[in-house]
Amino acid sequence: HSADAQRTDLMTITRFVLNEQSKYPESRGDFTILLSHIVLGCKFVCSAVNKAGLAKLIGLAGETNVQGEEQKKLDVLSNEVFCKALISSGRTSILVSEEDEDAIFVQPSLRGKYCVVFDPLDGSSNIDCGVSIGTIFGIYMMNDNHEPIIEDVLQPGKNMLAAGYCMYGSSCTFVITTGSGVNGFTLDPSLGEFILTHPDIKIPKKGKIYSVNEGNAKNWDGPTASYVEKCKFPTDGSPAKSLRYIGSMVADVHRTLLYGGTFLYPADKKSPNGKLRVLYEVFPMSFLMEQAGGQAFTGKERALDLVPTKLHERSPIFLGSYDDIEEIKALYAAEE
Ligand code: AHM
Ligand code: MG
C-alpha cells in the first residue's frame, strides 16, 4: 500500500517545506519562497549540466560558439542563474558565492531577511568528464532590521537556519536540513518536481569507507597520517576500509551520508587550512552531517563552532559517521 501511496500522493519539496513551516505560527511563507528560488536554480543547472556535452556549454569562458556568441563556462552560468534567482526572490539581503570575490548586497527594494552563502557549481575539475558535480548552499537569517553588513554572514555554522546541496549525478538529488533532520528529494524530470525519496536520512554509526585525496599524503600532519594508516592496516582485528574518492565534495559527502564512513580534506604542509571553504562548503556539509547523526570536526573543534573572519576562509574538515569521527578526534587530542 505504501508504494502505491508514494506513486499517487506525491510529496514534493514545496509541500514538504510548507508542512515543516506550518509548525511555526509566525512563519509567513518567506522561507518557502526563498527555497523555491534555490530549487529553480538547481533545476536550471541540472538541465545545463545534462546538456553540457551537446550544447558545448563546456569550454573556456570567453570562447565563442558557432553563432559567434560568447560562451559561458558552466560554473559562470550557474553563478549568474543563482544570483538572479536569489535576488528576484525578494527574500535575501546578502549573497556570498564562491565565484565572487565580494559579497553581493541586494538593492533595498528587493531586500528580505535571509542571507545565502553558496557554491553554485562545486567540483569543477569533474565538469568536462561527466562526473557528478553539485551546488552547495547555507542560509542565515538577519537578526533584526538593520542595514545589512558583512558580519551578518560571518557567523558560526551553528547559526545557520538551513543548508543543503543538489547533486547532478546519475539522477538529480536535493538534500536539505532545516535543523530537524535531513531529507532527500529526487528530480522527476517528467514532472519537473523534486519528490521525497530519502526521508529522514541517518548516517550509519560506523562505516567501512574513507575518502581523502591521498596524493597529498607526504604533506599530512601526524594524526591524519595515522588515521589513514589505521584505515588500511587496522590493529584492532577489524577489516581494512575501502577507499572511495570522487573529488567532488557533494558526491563524496552524499555517499558518506548514505553509506557511512569518513570524508576528509585535512590540512597539509602546503595548505595549512586545507582546501575547502568554511562558509559554503564546510558549514553546510557539517550541518547536514550532524543532523543525520554524524559529526564534523576541524582537527581542533566542532566545525559548526568555527567563527569565520573572511568570506572565503578555508578550514580542514573531517566529517562522517559518529564513531569514525570520534576516532579522529582522539588522534588529534593525543597529539596536544
Ligand atoms: P572547486 O571549488 O574548485 O571545485 O574545488 C572544490 C573541490 C571539492 O568538490 C572537492 O572535495 C575538492 O575540491 C577536491 O580537491 P582535490 O582535487 O585537491 O582532491
Ligand atoms: Mg567549490
Coarse morphology: globular
What share of the residues does DSSP label as strand, in percent? 15-25%
How would you sum up the major sheet? 8 strands, mixed
Rg on CA atoms, Å:
20 Å
Spell the H/E element sequence.
HHHHEEEEEEEEEHEHEHEEH
Quantity of strands, as a count: 13
Ligand types: 2,5-anhydro-1,6-di-O-phosphono-D-mannitol, magnesium ion
Number of helices: 8
Terminus-to-terminus distance = 56 Å
The percent range for helix content is 25-40%
By helix and strand content, what is the structural category? alpha+beta
**Average pLDDT metric:** 92
Spell out the key features of this protein.
336 residues; alpha+beta; eight-stranded mixed β-sheet; five-stranded mixed β-sheet; 8 helices; 32% helix; globular; binds 2,5-anhydro-1,6-di-O-phosphono-D-mannitol; binds magnesium ion
